[in-house]
From TrEMBL:
Family recorded in the similarity comment: Belongs to the IlvD/Edd family.
Dihydroxy-acid/6-phosphogluconate dehydratase N-terminal domain: residues covered: 69-382
Cofactor: [4Fe-4S] cluster
Keyword 4Fe-4S: yes
Name of the protein: Phosphogluconate dehydratase
InterPro entries noted in UniProt: 6-phosphgluc_deHydtase, Dihydro-acid_dehy_C, DiOHA_6PGluconate_deHydtase_CS, ILV_EDD_C, ILV_EDD_N, IlvD/EDD_N
GO CC terms: cytosol
């Protein structure tokens, strides 16, 4: 079944735009491929170093030119709940590889920070750049050239995009991503949000807030709301980098472990030494990235991926743009309601039919490219399944249910929750920005109000506590872009603005910083480009200027005469407090060379 005309036209223009860089990329990875085990080209001393610490059977296997070797890139640490389960995965993968007649080695570890821990604090200014560090760390791990395929253990916000960029840099190798799964459901997300608002208003204390948060984030696995981490898992499955059905299986369960072992065995089946060679750089083509953007919009996924998908695509020589993402959004209906776009969490989404149901609905509506390569085969239709465990420990895959088990969580394509995905580009004299309106009520899609200027989120929070945020206004929080301070998420501002909106004030946010998939109900023009420190017009807005944010028309404008606006001089605030502490001094070079948000905010 072919994709509809609109999505095919968008795909075609991406292919044409990308042709020179894509062809050069494919030529590079084709030159790097080998029909012999990759390590066979190493010298004896090199190879001896590569297997010196292995056990006798693995050492014997690696000494010859017959057995295949999987490289494991892991983002394990036991502070980050989503990654704690990865502690046991290498042994499962090694066991599965031996059962299939191969070998597996941990090729390297990559950093994995938690935005939930650093949110609102200095460490958050390392978050976006950690993506590119992860890509580089992946390259270091694979640079030993010992491996015929690689598996990637990562889940959360910048980690999966960084791993994808690293994997595509070694695009001649097959790549399978192995998730850890979400934690079981805890305190409902709407109740958590209610307690946060009460705390911000001084109506409950820290003890009550901590109790609420601890009931929400209570065990191993991904946080259950639909932010960037769970958007990552959706993307890996709909783009064919997971084995079918694996995104949202809870950790530390027999089915989860069985899927981990199956993924390792599949990695050995798709190397260049066999008949199903699936190099990740060739597998992930323009159609795969269009499918990812479709999934992002159909599920109301994280706005962080308007940055990450562009950077990931660029690593494969593909030129994806914000306009592509916005145009796809206009053609794709919203089929999922998961918090903050609804009350359900990802466990409820999975129970309602999950990825198998979603992919089938999108395929049948001609909203996905079906004839794409995946790690499982030659068609995305393979992913329209529901997984379970057989009595013998193998995985059974049955067709996804025809009817959603919860129509409030997953809808049919012909009766969606809304006709579009809700991610749009805003353009105007302030620059370009991204807005997600899938959780914003229609009467808030247009806000025209005077500007209140802030140069960091703490300044705005202090103004709220002091009772200075009265009346209608648009908060302009600037000098939060990648060049200024690494482009931290400003998620803590959502509680403040949510309270004011609930009081009846018409409020919005305009910022060159970021928000995640948890941006929620307040209209927010984010990722403003050019950023303030790059002489962007957002730096020339003055207190009291009238700003019009119009999500319906896709415009973002400060209502100031062009002559006056151009004549204004930029007064750059003192940003020295962003340059040191919490490791920020080590990222000075990153801040200097990073690209614009609409180009992936990448240092590459």
């Amino acid at each position: 079944m072919t994709v509809n005309h609109t999505l095919q036209a968008i795909t075609n223009r991406i292919i044409e735009r990308s042709r020179p860089t894509r062809e050069a990329y494919l030529a590079r990875i084709n030159a790097a491929a080998s029909r012999k085990p990759m390590r066979s080209a190493l010298g004896c001393a090199n190879l001896a170093h590569g297997f010196a610490a292995c056990g006798p059977s693995d050492k014997a296997g690696l000494a010859g030119d017959e057995l295949l070797n999987i490289g494991i890139i892991t983002a394990y640490n036991d502070m980050l709940s989503a990654h704690q389960p990865f502690e046991t995965f290498p042994q499962l993968i090694k066991q599965a590889a031996r059962e299939a007649g191969g070998v597996a080695q941990v090729a390297g570890g990559v950093p994995a920070m938690c935005d939930g821990v650093t949110q609102g604090f200095a460490g958050m200014e390392l978050s976006l750049f950690s993506r590119d560090v992860i890509a580089m760390a992946t390259a270091v791990g694979l640079s030993h050239d010992m491996f015929d395929a690689a598996v990637y253990l990562g889940v959360c916000d910048k980690i999966v995009p960084g791993l994808v960029i690293g994997a595509l840099t070694f695009g001649h190798l097959p790549a399978i991503f192995i998730p850890a799964g979400p934690m079981t459901s805890g305190l409902p997300n709407d109740e958590k949000a209610r307690i946060r608002q009460l705390y911000a208003e001084g109506k409950v204390g820290r003890a009550e807030l901590l109790e609420s948060e601890s009931k929400s984030y209570h065990g191993p696995g991904t946080c259950t709301f639909y932010g960037t981490a769970n958007s990552n898992q959706m993307l890996m499955e709909i783009m064919g980098l997971h084995i079918p059905g694996s995104s949202f299986i809870n950790p530390n369960t027999p089915l989860r472990d069985a899927m981990t072992k199956e993924a390792a065995k599949r990695a050995l089946e798709i190397t260049a030494c066999g008949n199903n060679y699936t190099p990740v750089g060739a597998m992930l083509d323009e159609r795969s990235f269009v499918n990812g953007v479709v999934g992002l919009n159909a599920t109301g996924g994280s706005t962080n991926h308007t940055i990450h998908l562009i950077a990931m695509a660029a690593a494969a020589g593909i030129k994806l743009t914000w306009q592509d993402i916005s145009d796809i959004s206009a053609a794709v209906p919203l089929l999922a309601r998961v918090y903050p776009n609804g009350l359900a969490d990802v466990n409820h989404f999975h129970a309602a039919g999950g990825m198998g149901y979603l992919i089938r609905e999108l395929l049948d509506a001609r909203l996905l490219h079906e004839d794409v390569r995946t790690v499982w085969g030659e068609t995305l239709r393979d992913y329209t399944i529901e997984p379970a465990l057989n009595a013998d420990g193998t995985i059974a895959r049955t067709p996804a249910p025809e009817v959603s088990a919860d129509a409030k969580v997953l809808a049919k394509a012909e009766a969606p929750f809304q006709p579009d995905g809700g991610i749009k580009v805003l353009s105007g004299n302030i620059g370009s920005a991204i807005i997600k309106i899938s959780a914003v009520k229609p009467d808030r899609h247009v806000i025209e109000a005077p500007a209140k200027i802030f140069h960091d989120q703490a300044e705005m929070q202090d103004a709220f506590k002091a009772g200075k945020l009265e009346g209608d206004f648009i908060a302009v929080v600037r000098y939060q872009g990648p060049k200024a301070n690494g482009m931290p998420e400003l998620h803590k501002l959502m509680t403040v603005l949510g309270i004011l909106q609930d009081r009846g004030q018409r409020v919005a946010l305009v910022t060159d910083g970021r928000l995640s998939g948890a941006s929620g109900k307040v209209p927010s023009a984010i990722h403003v480009t050019p950023e303030a420190l790059d002489n962007g017009m957002i730096a020339k807005i003055q207190e009291g200027d009238i700003i019009r944010l119009d999500a319906a028309q896709g415009t973002l404008t400060v209502l100031v005469n062009d002559t006056e606006l151009q004549s204004r001089t930029i007064q750059t605030p003192d940003l020295s407090h962003n340059q040191f502490g919490m490791g920020r001094e080590l990222f000075t070079a990153f801040r200097h060379i990073t690209g614009h948000a609409d180009q992936g905010a990448s240092v590459f």
